[in-house]
């Protein structure tokens, strides 16, 4: 199957599942739920849930286990969405546009947007701790721990705090790596790891998929830096060139466009190599890595 | 033991445990961790962790199980603290003072405070999903689910959204009850329930403690409304009279001071009655209910 077809199929699957899992905007809390749903269904490539599902598919054919991975992926999408809502706030990046639509606080006010983010983050753990039948509670707890660590103070939130604190200041490349690894890399790696866990990966598969997850997380962030520097607001659906305006250190700022593109290529190759021996079931993971790189052209 | 002595003993226990569980403010993320620690250790009565522990103590003598309840209580305190940090933000209640000290955003900036709250919420789930030996993973998942529901869109966050949306508007008493039950009641009830679960409560005990938790959650909120209307900023350590200034519906606004005091008394008696048959091990829970009422004089 072509990767684009694969992605659009899975995207639909993710969005249908998200819709069925997410609370309906009715009853006394409907305003709050509406604010959460707004950002959750405002588009997005659904990279994390698709990675989670593809990772499970690489290790199991069991539809029940793949469905568990899909639910975990939806929880990760809730977390990713909350992070975007909070990143866009006036006190943070102060963005008015996200995926070509008004950001959450533009429609629901600052308080509403802060709470919508809080609600999505908390709801993600509600999903992860749902009564599950196909996976053991031991696996569930392990997955919850991985997600909390990836999204927490030494992961995504911590990375965002570092990113904000580092605006308009210069720091060594190692520090940029720490920011990338925590802010973006951790949750992407976690998507691959938790999908593998849900699918019942053995320890060797787990190790390989973790390496894949790390490499693809890095590739993703390098490409993101690259696109911010080279693309347009129209194409991105968010403000292009904003890194430079905010004085943010990025891969292109350190290495220039060409070298950065090579580094992205290297990361994608590392990701692909980590999957040696998986063969056909991991084909979508390989194509996903290539797809991320293809965005740079 | 006198309740005041019990409370100060347990408070120390909670704070020592919190300190040992919480990340140290070192390494690249130290600024972010420092912001979390600031509010976590800025005082507070530690009502939720103490209730969680006292609830476990009502059903078990096992120190290992009581320790699990203490850790869960610490996770709940992280969640409670995050909610205060976000509530105090300029976009929400815009408070400069909390427990007699500058609020988080006054010291760490708005972005820093939003992220500190996000970090504490996420870290709470890291604590709840830690490798535990004394309780089963099945119990752990059940506890995580209860906490996520209590703190989530139909619980605490949803209640805060309702509260903010309802400022300066009039609504029926039933709506005030919904706000109270979700914004404050849910997490307090959850503290009692999760402590009971960690302690290995049987289903009858669980039912009784749930009733206790609901009643004490209600008592707590009624008393909070009462204190805001009758106390001083100096005594409260936060702005007194702020409910009236913000045009918030409260128990005193609906019923006047005396009737409100009676309603608090009723709730405390309901809480106490729910514990019939527990005898001595539940004595601290009874005294805690009385203590909450005693704050109204």
CATH topology group of chain A: Farnesyl Diphosphate Synthase
What assembly state would you assign to the polypeptide chains in this entry?
homodimer
Largest sheet of chain A: 2 strands, antiparallel
Instruction: Please work out how many helical segments of chain A DSSP would assign.
Output: 13
Q: Could you say which structural class the secondary elements and strand pairing of chain A correspond to? A: mainly alpha
Give the beta-strand count of chain A: 2
Number of separate structural domains of chain A: 1
CATH H-level homologous superfamily name of chain A = Farnesyl Diphosphate Synthase
Taken as a percent bin, the fraction of beta residues of chain A is: under 5%
- The residue ranges of chain A in which pLDDT falls below 50 over 5 or more consecutive positions are none
Chains forming the largest contact: A-B, 56 and 56 residues
Radius of gyration of chain A: 18 Å
Shape annotation of chain A? globular
Proper CATH architecture of chain A: Orthogonal Bundle
